[in-house]
């Protein structure tokens, strides 16, 4: 699943077991067609979207 951290959720930390062991990946790209029949675009194709203040991620890979 895609991950979204909204602006109302501050101080979120994602901690993985190692950058080579914990990988969050999704197969979308900007030119993929969304539910509305239009390309997702750069913003819509994000695997992880963080809009939260004080977000921290460590020992994790995002693809």
Terminal residue distance: 13 Å
Q: Per DSSP, what share of the residues sits in E-state strands of 2 or more residues?
A: 25-35%
Largest sheet: 2 strands, parallel
Q: From N to C, what is the helix and strand string? A: EEEHEEE
Q: Helicity, in percent?
A: under 10%
Tally of distinct domains: 1
Which regions contain 5 or more consecutive residues with pLDDT less than 50?
A: none
Tell the overall outline.
flat
Give the number of helices: 1
How are the strands ordered across the major sheet?
Answer: 1-4
**Can you give the mean pLDDT?**
95
Give the tally of β-strands: 6
Given the helix and strand composition, which structural class is it? mainly beta
Radius of gyration: 13 Å
Brief description of this entry?
The chain is mainly beta. Helix content is 6%, strand content 25%.
Give the topology, please.
Elements: E1 3-5, E2 13-15, E3 23-24, H1 41-44, E4 48-50, E5 56-58, E6 61-62
Parallel strand pairs: 1-4, 2-5, 3-6
What do you see in this structure?
GO terms for molecular function: pectinesterase activity. It is a single chain. The protein has 63 residues and is mainly beta. The chain has one domain (1-63). It has one helix spanning 41-44, and strands at residues 3-5, 13-15, 23-24, 48-50, 56-58, 61-62. The strands form three sheets. A two-stranded parallel ribbon has the order 1-4. Strands 2-5 form a two-stranded parallel ribbon. The two termini are 13 Å apart. The mean pLDDT is 95.
């Amino acid at each position: 699943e895609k991950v979204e951290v909204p602006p109302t959720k501050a101080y979120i930390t994602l901690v993985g077991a190692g950058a080579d062991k914990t990988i969050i990946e999704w197969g979308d790209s900007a030119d993929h067609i969304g539910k509305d029949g239009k390309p997702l675009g750069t913003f819509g194709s994000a695997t992880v979207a963080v809009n939260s203040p004080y977000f921290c991620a460590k020992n994790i890979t995002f693809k």
